[in-house]
Fold this protein.
Amino acid sequence: MIKPNKLQRGDTVATISPSWGCAGTSRVKWQYRLGCERLNELGLNVVAAPNSMKGTSYLAQNPQARAEDINWAFENKEVKAIISNIGGNDAERLFPYLSKKAIKDNPKIFCGYSDVMALHLFCYRLGIMTFYGDNLLTTIAENPKWHPYSKHWFEKTFFDPSGIGEIFSADEWSYDPNKHTDKSYKKTFVSNEGVKRIQGKGAVRGKLFGGHGELISIKDADGQPLVREENFKDSIFFFEDIPECCDVDYIKRFFDYLGKKGYLQLLNGIIIGKMPSPMSFEPYINAIKEIISEKYGLPDLPVMCDMNFGHSSPIFILPYGAEAELDVDNLSFAITESGVV
């Protein structure tokens, strides 16, 4: 994987709206400005991509404009990192308009989660390391503050060219929704009990690959599946999803599909983010074991869950293709490689 250069104080970050254009609407601009201010505090300059603040209606009707922003951000020599404003459900429509040359010739930090996954997969096929992590509105500009845990991993991942290291659990977490039009809204956090072992034993290493459940249905500009068998081979697969989707039956269907395709059998390990219920992970544990261990006969495949990434808060950042180590005996996970140079 081709790694981007690290961030330094004084660098310029471009913000884009690859899926949903709410950042440019009048009722949400306050939160966009708040996110910019928090990046300014790290010594970063922030510029909005040319079309990114034109609002939901314009961007929904113009996927080419959203793609042009991505091409512009990669080609712009002043821009050192690209951060998505928010996810959505429409990034797949950008594929016909994206410039593979612009992206591959100008590797740089590209960060976001949720629907931004489609663009990460596009870059992954080009051999470019990108990052499943902070969106501007939903992480950096979160109320009442950019959570110190999320901020720590942002700085560690993007400003430090050494190995990212062991990922410790946050002391607290929240699955509260984001309310982008309410300045007074604050998320409620509950105590975090830490990660849990679902199954398997020992320590394994592998390259990071994954995302949310739509990963298996995304198609490229030619209508072919964007994810291939080789993406799973010897990987540590990371999985999470939005609360509205991620019930027990959904989890079972997703991992059953991976088993039917033969992808589960290629993995070295699996890590899973937070599930919607703050009360108990037990129903999900039983469902996952039923599919992976019982149906597909993989009881030794290490699987660990309840980790701080994706649609919960706070989060750490996952670099696609980076080497990682999962130890279910000691309930530890480390990204042993750097994300930047």
